[in-house]
Amino acid sequence: MTHPPPLPSPAAAGWWGRHWRWAMPLLVIGSLAAIVGCCAWSLWRWSQAAHASAPLREAMRRATCSVEVVAALGEPLQAGRLPYGNMHTGLDGRREVGLFVGLEGPRGDGTLIVQGTREDDRWDYPVMYVLGADEVTIDLSALDDAEAALECELATCRAEGRCPAIPRTR
User: Percentage of the chain surpassing pLDDT 70?
Assistant: First the structure.
């Protein structure tokens, strides 16, 4: 009697076949971490770009120089971490910015709202105000933006001694 041929030996399993039980969850977790990291990095870069933009810097300068804003929110004023809005540069070089950013002071919080357009290296701010508690609106827009950039109402008021009593909290 002849013996049947031997059964083929099972092929040696590859790396994936031997390690898929721990490699698959690690791959999924690593992919999710990379996606979350990219989103966090994008938000961080957006926040940096928005805070460094000329409209937000000018709006913060006007807010810290406004007697009404300092009286309502206190000193020092700080912008929130993550502005909301958009910044757009057209093909013709025209820039449009619309931002909402939280404004925090020792006596209260508000929202700083600024909208600006730049043409020929000159910014124009048709909308710039602080929306404080109880929906109180404090207008920061000026008829002449170039003139407003050179003055600080709060510093002038303090230098002349005609400011209302604004307690300083630090």
Answer: 91
CATH topology of domain 53-160: Nuclear Transport Factor 2; Chain: A, (3.10.450)
Which DSSP string do the residues of the chain spell out, in sequence order?
Answer: -PPPPPPPPPPPP-HHHHHHHHHHHHHHHHHHHHHHHHHHHHHHHHHHHHHHSHHHHHHHHHHHH-HHHHHHH-SS-EE-SS-EEEEEE-TTS-EEEEEEEEEEETTEEEEEEEEEEEETTEEEEEEEEEE-GGG-EEE---S-HHHHTT--HHHHHHHHT---------
Residues of the chain with pLDDT under 50: 170
Domain boundaries in the chain? 15-52, 53-160
Model pLDDT for residues 96-125, shown as the tens digit of each residue: 999 999 999 898 899 999 999 998 888 888
